[in-house]
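Follow-up to my post from last week.
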Amino acid sequence: MKNYLDTFNTLKTPFYWYDMDLLDRTLISVKQEADKYGFHVHYAVKANANLPILEKIREYGFGTDCVSGNEVLRSLEAGFKPKEIAFAGVGKTDEEIAIGIENDIFSFNVESIPELEVINEIAAKLGKSTNVSLRLNPNVAANTHEYITTGLNENKFGINMMDMEEVLKVLKTLSHIKLTGIHFHIGSQITDLNDFKKLCERINQIQDWFEEQDIKLEHINAGGGLGIDYQNPDENSVPDFASYFKIFAEHLKLRPNQQLHFELGRSIVGQCGSLLTKVLYVKKGVQKQFAIVDAGFTELIRPALYQAYHEIENISSTLPEEKYDVVGPICESTDFFRKDVTLAGTKRNDIIAIKSAGAYGQVMTSQYNLRTPVKAYYSDKQNK
Ligand SMILES: *Cc1c(COP(=O)(O)O)cnc(C)c1O
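User reply:
Got it. Predicted complex:
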């Protein structure tokens, strides 16, 4: 990143910087490993919805996974084919459902009986029929932060297996929707691949159950959740997609002609984005010193929201290392990026890179304190 220091010094901070070569290398790996088994990948747009990023992902032939009507529209704007767009989310509005139906998307991932009924009603009104997959709650605990685990019975997401007979009864009465698959998503930032093995085993049991009910499913959707190495972003810039897809190839028993779909977000875009910020002041406390930077949780909320770890580097300085609490300007005590960070000796106007911020970074920014919307720059474009 230091190679870009001259460019960074001409740009107004804070801003997001996207390494498009790294994004390419990541996408090449995803494609190569998924193609080995004929798996289908949908990129989870909620991780990063910037058009240049979406357009590059589209070039590799992937679809998208959306959690709002606007994400469906953004996917179409970026050139994704409607038949490759999956639409998930516990609280889809009537308007959003209509967007999906009118555009003939691949499938709605449906999370409740009332939602099935509403989709059917809207499809009927539009004189259309639409595909649905049921988002099932596998009751698999993922080893991740409690705020980003989603596959347990007590989570708000998905339908529990014990309600499935009732769901099938209701489905029989709904003539404008077709059940094409089942969908799972057990959480995010999962680094223990054994969690995905447990998911495969659970899906196998659930598939047996559907077979007993004489229901054929065209596809299984295993969701996303593969984690990235926030501690060592330079050494591990591309996640281990080979091992990830291999787990599913080895443990998930697909039926003849059944497709397996994935919805990867963080693992695709996480490492290619950094937040660049300038040091405003270095302030000495009684026991600590603070590097006060011009970005805050309004630009990157992950540390404040779920105590997320990001590598931080002073790319301007070659002075001996010292320890700093790296903090933002927002009027909240949780507005710090990390405490006791070892940085090269830091002074006013140095540029600090906060790494691995490509996923759930720019998309979660806010204008609290009337902050200016943060800009994005891309390594493959002229940046002025
Ligand atoms: C957020 C989400 C994803 C993507 O999760 P990552 O951890 O970023 O891979 C996939 N599917 C659904 C339904 C989601 O909500």
